[in-house]
Amino acid sequence: YGCGRQLLREMDKKFAHHNAEAAQLAFDAMDDSKCQNISQFETYLSVFKTNANVCKKAGEPISNVQKCRILRRGLSHLDDLKVLFETWEASDKKHDPDDLVDRLEEKLNRIKLDKLSKKHGNANAFADQKCTYCHKTNHDESECRKKKADLEAAKKQRRDPKGLGKGKYGKGRE
Fold it and tell me: How far apart are CA 120 and CA 63, in angstroms?
């Protein structure tokens, strides 16, 4: 082949159709998927983003109009989101899928917060509450992800502070 660049060009030609197939499969998956109920909303949104990135990386990005149409059709029958879609369509950013995704993620966070607060009794139990560990809002110390991650990291450090030791078969062997 002569040089590495020529080999890479040949490989790109060979696998270009694989990228196109991957993009088409991702687009079809996005176009065919529908969110059946509000509990599948988070999964639907993450699958949408993943498939949009697959199409973009394959060199066949989806237009903003198509993204908006796919989101609208996939989520349109959910009653909880009808008001959100109406306000978004009335706004000046009605062809901006990133704005729509941001609004959908905000709605998802509110739904999660509502479920969390209902779980703990008070409707606004965590709305203004600040964690005493990480000092962020909407959770308390018992549910703090940072604290759990820090405790796991500390556990791993404490497990073997001196190293492997001599052991049965000599230093460093089991």
Answer: 43
Kindly tell me if the per-residue pLDDT of 92 is higher than 60: yes
Radius of gyration for the alpha carbons in the chain, expressed in angstroms and rounded: 24
In the chain the beta strands, taken as DSSP E runs, fall at none
Other C-beta atoms within 10 Å of 33: how many?
Answer: 17
Alpha-carbon span 172 to 165, nearest angstrom: 6
Alpha helices in 79-144 (DSSP H): 82-90, 97-119
Q: Decide if 87 contacts 72 (C-beta within 8 A).
A: no
Rounded CA gap, 17 and 26, in Å? 14
20 in Cβ contact with 29 (< 8 Å) = no
- Tens of pLDDT, residues 58-69: 778 888 888 888
